[in-house]
Amino acid sequence: MQIIREETYLSNLEIIINFIAKDSVNRAFDFLNKLDYKINNIVHMPYKYRQSLYYDDTNIRDLIFKGYTISYLIDTDKQHIIILDIFKWINK
Question: What's the mean per-residue pLDDT of the chain?
Answer without folding.
Answer: 94
